[in-house]
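If your schedule permits, I should be very grateful for your opinion on a structural question. Please examine both parts with care and let me know of anything in them that strikes you as inconsistent. The record follows directly beneath this note:
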Amino acid sequence: MAKQDPATAKKFAALLKKSITAYKGEDPPPRDPVAQLIVSFMQWDSTRTKAEDAFVALMEEMIDVNDLRVSHPHELVEVIGKDYPNAVNRVIRLRESLHEVYAREHDIQMHSIAGKGKKEQRAYLDSLPGIAPYIAAQVTLLSFGGHAMPIDDKLLALLINEGCLHEGTSIADAESYLVRQIKAGDALEAHLALQAWADKRKAPAAKAPAKTTKTTKASKTTKSTKTTKKKTTKTTKATKSAPKKKVAKKKTTKKKVTKKK
């Protein structure tokens, strides 16, 4: 977990205050958890305006939510538009979550967690296949009144870029940190203001990883071998080019032998 510090907390507090002051939008209409689940799927890594328009288009085209659940992905993509961000993957994952709700409830409503505690409600949402933390957090906040802060990849990148979070902070860690910075009663206002702030901005470009040239043991061995060879060659050449020293021949003196008479 990337730990935050007083400097990041100060920057986030300033950004949040500025965003709340600038926010002039309206609160979203009250929706049942499943309807909100659909809106949240559309809003995840997109914008609030696009999500609302997509939800209206889907509900106008489909008979009801159950009809949406059993529709083919390509049919849903045709409704929201092929140019909708990550359209195919989005509707596939939405259908997975809706099918799981139906399997658990034998209905297209979340009756089993209606009167449960906030932690149980969040755990139920987090366990749905295809769901993202942003979606679970938004349904928790808007439909169940739980203390949550929806954060998707775009908002996370923007907050890191503004120095409000450290590089390498995960979405789960970011939500946990912001929940500690924002009181439960202020969470809805903070979410709507931050969402509006993010919707007006482009996601910052991903930073390219720093290039590092690592020398492997194999390459080091090769280099040292080459160096040794060079040294050996130089030594050989030096030996060959060295002038030969003349060895002086020893003179042998013959001893005179005196013959006996």
Notes: Confidence is low (pLDDT under 50) at residues 215-228, 232-243, 245-261. The CA atoms of residues 8 and 43 lie 27 Å apart. The longest helix spans residues 217-241. The chain is about 60% helix and 0% strand.
